[in-house]
Amino acid sequence: MIFPDDFLWGGAVAANQCEGAYHEDGKGLDIQDVMPKGILSGPTAEPTPDNLKLKAIDFYHRYPEDIKLFAEMGFKVFRTSIAWSRIYPNGDDAEPNEEGLAFYDRLFDECRKYGIEPLVTISHYETPLHLAKAYNGWANHALIGFYERYVRTLFERYRGKVKYWLTFNEINSVLHQPLLSGGIMTPREKLSLTDLYQACHHEFVASALATKLAHEMMPEAKVGCMILAMPIYPLTPAPDDMIAVMQANHFNDFFGDMHVRGRYPGYMKRYFRENGIEIRMTPEEELLLRENTVDFVSFSYYVSICEGRGGENGGGNILGGKKNPYLKASEWGWQIDPQGLRYTLNRFYDRWQKPLFIVENGLGARDVLVDDGKGGRTVEDDYRIAYLNDHLVQVGEAIADGVPVMGYTTWGCIDLVSASTAQMSKRYGFIYVDRNDDGTGTLARYPKKSFYWYRDVIASNGAAL
Ligand code: BGP
């Protein structure tokens, strides 16, 4: 496998799933602090002790140890998010919280100490709770202004330290998980299609504003959108099924089209027309979208699904999907399809002609800690090595196909709290964290077998695959 010399190998996490310290140093509450069951339940009135994210893996205090381990693996890049409510505790405050800003200074400095480039998600499923409660999150136009103030603060503070920025994690998920993704308190079934697409519009405008500001304030910055990607295959060769696939793709491609082409595509205008959806937008917003398109497209990749008549539900991730009889699935029913990653890279590059960055990929599994025979403990996670190896081989194929791939960050490079289940037992890491679903555990870190495998892959720039 031949990877470019400057290929950005690394790993990814999100603040709410690893930091903990949910009300330290002036942090306000965010929606995750009241979502103890992940996407499986609605918000609680206030943080409850069963919410593992309140402490998570205590990355807030243990980050020097963790970054050191990432450096041992040879990471070139580390993707994390900034918790919005550490910077603006309520989201609509007039002044930022200095202690929150100082934390990320320390974190980015620690990365830079080892030559690790930070890749920052500005908003990763962690809308400040006050913005959710008082404004109904991204359903409200006012969020654009609060987000703008927040990103301006970030860019002023971290220019020179952070070059790569992502505006919204898995932006297309807002259609499916409005609370998790957009801080929208109104339950999904009570939201009209107009409400949902209006929220998308607000995020598009905010994303374009962030891109504009980044380019003005940090000439060397690269800004990307971030999409939950999944190839969709027809259940049969029936032309009807192929059209169903095309239409299903539109609902995800729409988000990339808005960021790369900067205008509403014809297929969405038709959908809006036929479903009585009317988006309020100003000519200034339309111009902003057109003039501030992204530098690269990033995406998460875990599964592929099927579309068409019949079929059985249950093959997808948080977006849902139909089963593919040719694929095996993880314990949580997420279908495993390494070739789908090559296909996705090719399809996205054909469509957008922008550099691509795989910022999430990995296998959630129940790991078992065992003696390593040398007095320590480890996890023999050959299944994870196989998953990642198979996917990276397909990344290599896509690069050979001529697709410019900037880098690859495995999801949950250290075990963290799962977004969908809100539990620890769905683990992705190269590093095991001793914490259990009931909250017990020492929080000690143990490199797994995959830790050494990834170290060799990076050291050989992919030749070891
Ligand atoms: C993506 C999210 C992540 C992450 C990952 C794995 O949707 O961007 O935050 O958690 O999926 O999902 P899970 O934790 O549900 O297995």
UniProtKB/TrEMBL annotation:
An example molecular function term from Gene Ontology annotations: 6-phospho-beta-glucosidase activity
Hydrolase among keywords: yes
Key words of the record: Glycosidase, Hydrolase
Matches recorded under PROSITE patterns: GLYCOSYL_HYDROL_F1_1, GLYCOSYL_HYDROL_F1_2
Cellular component annotations (GO), alphabetically ordered: cytosol
Main EC class the enzyme belongs to: hydrolase
List of catalytic residues: 360 (nucleophile)
Keyword Hydrolase found: yes
Entry-linked Pfam families: Glyco_hydro_1 (PF00232)
InterPro entries: GH, GH_1_N_CS, Glyco_hydro_1, Glyco_hydro_1_AS
Family note: Belongs to the glycosyl hydrolase 1 family.
Protein known as: Aryl-phospho-beta-D-glucosidase BglH
Organism: Mitsuokella jalaludinii
Gene: bglH
